[in-house]
Amino acid sequence: MIPIIGKLYREKGVTVLLHSRSLVNKSVISILRTHRFARQIEGEELSIEETLPFLEVLGGLDLGPCKIDLGRLVMAYRADGGGRSAAEFTAAVLAEVTDGNKAEGQGPRDVVLYGFGRIGRLVARLLIEKTGSGNGLNLRAVVVRKGGEGDLAKRASLLRRDSVHGQFNGTIKVDAENDSIIANGNVIRFIYSDDPTAIDYTAYGIDEAILIDNTGKWRDRQGLAQHLRPGIAKVVLTAPGKGDVPNIVHGVNHRGLDLSERVVSCASCTTNAIVPPLKAMDDEFGIVRGHVETVHSFTNDQNLLDNFHKADRRGRSAPFNLVLTETGAASAVAKAMPDFKAKITGNSIRVPTPDVSVAILNLQLERETTRAEVLEYLRRVSLSGPLSRNLDYTAATDVVSSDFIGSRAASIVDANATIVDGDTAILYLWYDNEFGYSCQVVRTVQYVSGIEYPTYPRLGGHDSAAAVPELVAQ
């Protein structure tokens, strides 16, 4: 399977998924685990013997850039194969993206990172991981302030090794003469500057790029617009935007974004964690009001030891204390879901862990329900439909925060911690506030770049135990 998946990705820009989970650049064990994951949908895991024939058919089709979900394909065949062969069925359901109907690649699209901190380096890893087809995002440059002697080598080392997320998957070389890092063959130029208005990106061969500002130094339109220099087409902020800057939570409101907009925000990690389940719960049960309490890992904004800080409590030692602080996530909900009328309040407690947080949503619903109904609904939402890339679900009884390091979901519903009593529902949502959020950022950048391709086959509901209603393009 691995050579076929790789060839489809490199040569045709086709991303092969299995129930919304990418199989590109995955190991044998990872592919087997993803097949086993299908038990949550169908009650039994998919077998390699069942999916391989369909994958072999895909390898022989004249496809353009798109995403193809093998899980959906097999489910559709089980429900409505009609005695046709795998080749006949696959050709029929993918007719709109093959031969003369195939999409043309919109990439590559240049990307510039402004800042190279926790989020910047993880976004860099994701962008490098996704390079291959030539039709995607192409990390061309990183802008940083020079940190002194050996700056480039130190930044390469930080990209190569991470105390939380482990080793970089590949090779990294330093080209000091050209101020560049070569990561898995990708040449990334480092531009040293502390003034965004002083950079002409076209001098580095960069054109129509998406700039991702992960410094958080500027959050309003006026400040972020400083990045709109020669070579930069759009700016994406990895922090809550202020004023009229659109706050985008991928999966919830990204499709409503005016693509002519040149400055957008990806909101905060906590906003991305709570908005998808809020959207899901409001759609099905209605929400009257709610409160979110986040138990959040400490960040670089806090002090290691007690010292001066402009905030009241964040100056106290982060690894030694539970630190009460505010969260802007509750107020940011209104920007992501303007039609959402329920009032949401919120607070946060910073705790002495380096990564992974949990948001506790206490919701008053418009109607009474049961725990079983809520969990079955959220399980289905996490497996199929417009939120399946953003919302995950676990029924494991013994999970703890470190189990979710590296999760690509915006948040994960903890089924065993869920409490439902009449019209009150309390949800516990795990989220990797670094890596999961970085995945959301990359998804948003793909969308604003015009290279987020739909998922096929596009299927309606099937009347079978395996099916879930309205399987729509991601």
Question: Could you describe the 3D structure shown?
Answer:
By secondary structure, the chain is an alpha/beta fold. Strands 8-9-10-5-4-11-12-13 form an 8-stranded mixed beta sheet, with helices on one face. Strands 14, 15, 16, 17, 18, 19, 20 and 21 form an 8-stranded mixed beta sheet that branches. Strands 2-1-3-22 form a 4-stranded mixed beta sheet. The longest helix has 17 residues, at 269-285. The protein has helices at 2-12, 28-37, 39-42, 48-60, 70-80, 86-93, 118-130, 151-160, 221-224, 269-285, 329-336, 371-383, 435-449, and strands spanning 14-18, 21-22, 66-69, 109-114, 137-144, 161-162, 166-167, 172-175, 180-183, 186-192, 209-213, 232-237, 263-265, 287-297, 323-325, 343-351, 357-365, 391-394, 411-414, 419-421, 424-431, 455-456. Helix 4 (48-60) crosses helix 5 and helix 7 (118-130) crosses helix 13. The protein is globular and about 70 Å long. Helix content is 29%, strand content 23%.
